[in-house]
Amino acid sequence: MARKKPLVVVTRKLPDMVETRMRELFETRLSHEDRPLTQAELVEAVRTADVLVPTVTDRIDAGVLSQAGPNLRLIANFGNGVDNIDVDTATARGITVTNTPGVLTEDTADMTMALILAVPRRIAQGIKVIEREEWHGWSPTWMLGHRIWGKRLGIIGMGRIGQAVARRALAFGMSIHYHNRRRLPAEIEEKHEATWWESLDQMLARMDVISIHCPHTPGTYHLLSARRLKLLKKEAYVVNTARGEVLDENALARMLEAGELAGAGLDVFEHEPAVNPKLVKSDRVVLLPHMGSATIEGRIDMGEKVIINIKTFMDGHRPPDRVLPSML
Ligand code: 8YV
Fold it and tell me: What CATH number corresponds to the domain at position 42?
């Protein structure tokens, strides 16, 4: 007799191709409305599912996990960051957690580079001038931004995405600096012509652009605190395509308003989808609605990773992208 297919509950609408493949392989409960589930709906999902496929918009905390049914053995996150999941509690309850690393590296690095270019070169402001039909002709001293070439880029978190940003920034003539928990092997530093700063504070004080690429964990919450933001040069720019929580968004907004920082490019926010109104009003920022990995190719690759993780797990093997508490 054929083995019963696992019930896979997916919280959001995924690309058609991914959903079709999932339907072929598993018994599925897919999202037709494509809205974040309420905590009550999440509880209902974990009570019945064998596998839950959440996204960054679902908070799988200890409260939700405490109500998980006996069948729930795998949470296969559709996303790289797992700060939406209480991995400690899941692991303690014997629930495996997986993510989708690697496949969104290049897309996120592209978006980061776009922000590194857009803010100092005032691209969003230029677009607005045209849209509002306020352009009265070229002038030698109008709309001047700042040169990218020759500037110092400080990367916080030199993992896959940090290194992909370094590769791009190097081609734009920036010098690469990084702060990471662990220093990288010499050959990787050489490849990126990168300088390691053991002290984040010291690096911050000397950079022209700071770009955040570390995960959000209890240890990195407000890593760029009000105190640390004050260490930055007044002419510096901050770019964040990682997680809003790594940065004290209120402190950043206050500093931009007071002219204590040159500008910021943000794709992520502390309380998504809410954005600090001070930031929205500022003309020193480029703000994007968490689009870093939003390519159709990336979403299909993420879906394939989720499917491989589920399939491998259900076949009794260790899934390739298992996340353990010790990794966070
Ligand atoms: C994803 C992300 O779109 O994967 C991540 O960590 O931040 C995003 O780019 C999102 O997480 C999907 O769940």
Answer: 3.40.50.720
Asked whether residue 148 falls in the same domain as residue 279, the answer is: yes
What gap in Å lies between CA 48 and CA 59, rounded to an integer?
17
Q: Residue 87 belongs to what H/E stretch?
A: helix 87-92
Boundaries of domain holding 299: 7-102+295-327
**52 closest CA partner among 35, 31, 34:** 31
Atom of ligand 1 nearest to the CA of 293: 9
Q: Which of these, 249, 230, 231, 241, lies nearest to 293 by C-alpha position?
A: 241
pLDDT band at 3; cut points 50, 70, 90: low
Q: Which of 262, 250, 182 minimizes the C-alpha distance to 222?
A: 250
Among 204, 138, 211, smallest CA distance to 174 is for 211
Q: Indicate the number of domains in the chain.
A: 2
Helix (H) or strand (E) holding 52: strand 51-53
Give yes or no: 243 in active site. yes
Distance 243 CA to ligand 1 centre (A): 9
Annotation marks residue 249 as catalytic? no
13-71 pLDDT per residue, tens: 999 999 999 999 999 999 989 899 999 999 999 999 999 999 999 999 999 999 999 99
Q: Beta partners for 176? A: 153, 194
Quick check: is 136 catalytic? Answer: no
Q: Among 80, 267, 269, which is best to mutate for testing ligand 1, by the most ligand atoms less than 8 A from CB?
A: 80
Q: Does the C-beta of 241 come closer than 6 Å to ligand 1?
A: no
pTM over 0.85: yes
pLDDT value for 4 = 86
Predicted confidence (pLDDT) per residue in 288-315, tens digit: 999 999 999 999 999 999 999 999 999 9
